[in-house]
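User: Show me an example of a complex going from sequences to structure tokens.

Assistant: Sure. Here are the input components:
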Amino acid sequence: MNSKLVASLREAIGLAGLHDGMTISFHHHLRNGDHVLNMVLEEIAGLGIRELTVNASSIFDVHAPILEHIQNHVVTKLQCDYMAATVGRAVSQGILDTPVEFRTHGGRPRDIALGRTPIDVAFIAAPTADPMGNCSGKYGKSACGSLGYAFADARYAKKVVVITDNLVPYPLQDWSIPETDVDYVVTVDAIGDPKGIVSGTTRITRDPVGLVMASQAAQVIRHSGLLKDGFSFQTGAGGASLAAAKFLKDIMVAEGIQGSFGLGGITGYMVDMLRAGCFRSLLDVQCFDLQAVESIRDDPRHQEISAQHYAAPGDRSAVVDSLDVVILGATEIDTDFNVNVHTDSSGSIMGGSGGHSDTAAGAKLAMIIAPMFRARLPIITDHVTCISTPGRDIDVLVTQGGIAVNPNNTELQRRLSDAGLPLLDIRALKEKAEAITGKPRALPRGDRVIAQVFGREGQLQDVIYNVPQK
Amino acid sequence: MRRSMLFLPGNTPNMLINGSCLGADAVIFDLEDAVAPAEKDAARILVRNTMRDLDFRGCETIVRINSIDTPYWKRDLDEVLPQKPALILLPKTGCAADVEAADDYITLVEQRLGFAPNTVGLMPLIETALGVENAFAIASARSRVAALFLGAEDLTADLQCQRTKEGREIDYARHRLVVAARAANVAVYDTPFTDVNDDEGIRTDAAYAKALGFTGKAAISPRHVEVINQVFSPTIKEIRYAFEVMDAIALAKEQGRGAIALHGKMIDAPIVARARQTLDMARELGIGREDL
Amino acid sequence: MTEIIRAASAGTLESSDVYVEIEPRTQGIELQLESVVLGQFGGAIEAAVREILAQFQVENARLHVVDRGALDCVIRARVETAILRGKGDN
């Protein structure tokens, strides 16, 4: 029987020809339950290979062991779309000599495809695979649903290693990544911890401020002129964003509106909307909860898409170009509507664009939902610490204290004003928040660039400085 | 206009500081059941500061003090009255004497502060069998009484019956309170619906309260506020009818006629009064003729 | 002058609250401050604490303040409560 199975991860690394200074890549579909990135780096460190670039679509808290490999110069450069706070804090304190390169979920596969960020070896965690490397995220004990972020890695890396904990006989039916892209297949006991891979059930927020914002967000969409048959929609997995989806569903069902598609990271709420007839299909680059995983497996209307298809600029088209409304979050937004999702207010990395800038650029209406302040820190600032998404792509900010429309969008301003929604100039909203919190003192910034933020078109959009140690 | 009143736990800063943004027409700062005995002092200071320093424009403030059989109620009033709450919610009001005791002390503090008489209204909370039986006497005991408020949780305990979602056990109390309050010409507010996750239940419950004649309804969850506001707002149909009533009486006046009919029905004083109320609310909601 | 005669505390460690501990001290005010927004609001928090101490004429006390992003009015309330709980004629 023909097979690409190799006996161990170590052997696969050797066969792939990995040596010092190369670039390896990972996807983040196993999110905070991922074992594969740590497992691979552990083997690589054991082989004495050094000075690698890690190109991971996202880095989560579970990947904290990478810090040790950075200290030991096994890893000397990071490229990612999102970086959670644990690794982000160390990076902000200056653990790397080379700045981190942040891209968007659309920019990453585009740069991989164009050879701007070539990958030597891609390690693809696969919840199910066959011996020839056909693989899928929909089945197995570590099922994560869509494998959307891994497609470009599989297609363009020089060598591709599939790592699975659920090997099935050839041929796997309903594969996502085909054997034509795969060089080696390795089996391990567990590619991840199911508890960290997907949430059980994502629940609507009970935070009253979140609910108020969600309700206002739904009203903004209702009166935007976009909520009609054929409507398309994306929302994040944050509490207020999910609640907004629920309120939106109630409106769509009550008014009999049949949308076209729901997009993005998919949760049970979007699945509910599909089943309630709010959409004809779901286009899914990533599943957030069990309900989404079940749906993408069982419901043909729920379609997996690659990150490139989702959001990449420069192709003939991407789905975000057809998107009507996206609801996004922010850690800071400034009076020019520039949004920061990379750092917290003290400047320490705790996130990244992900699909933020891609969807904001593509959608007809890009909405930010954020409270006026978090833990006494106002969200609206004069200048954001880092421009993750430029203000020209943001149409409206919804807070519990009022709604601010980007003055560039005069039509939305008029529609929401006619609907009697509580509109405020973003500067007035900033003052309103500061009247409650007081004006925060600006924190000192370091003088060393520790990260570069590339806009979705590939241009250097902003840089992030180190956070000085006390 | 006071359709919804939202309870905010008096010693929880996170809830208090966002209280004015939650969509309720009024918030009730709760110093009673939501606050443990050891934290009564902390809560009254926190509530006083919150009322003093944060902006509650567009949202009326009400304080539920502790009942007059506790050692706390006078100190509660000392702290919060200077902040001019619209109403004091007086728990466990059982008879007119309870109202008189509270009113006497509030009057004293008002005088000390140089406030005009009855600057702060009183809203007895009827939550005992005795209170229900004495509802009219309570509502008419003093001019400071601005409304009655039904509290079903404590009441059902006192009645020794189960509190159910359908609420048949409080039906008599609801009817009785509406009649007593209307007889005394004060407003009347319904008990909160306690299942936070039942979106249909709250709508049914609020609609029933409105149908019985309640002015508005309290909420313990911000999730219920929007539904209560919707239910207790006049419908477009009601507003349209109110305009027709006013037009008809204006026309009759012009023509010097006494008896006025609209759609074949006589318009009498109560109908006109009701139309005026409806149009007052419509004006506050920003709904005019052009929106119909 | 208000004398602090016993150790007392007020507030919680919940988000948007502040936990204030106060205890007797012989000479002057000793203030230890922790905050999630120390960089942005440390000065404002300390000023609020000292203002309430001055208002109640507390001249000798040791305070430990752990702030979880409380607003000014909350900080003032918790300090006042701690003082009233720790003072003599309580």
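The lines above are the inputs; the final block is the predicted structure for all three components together. The mean pLDDT of chain B is 94.
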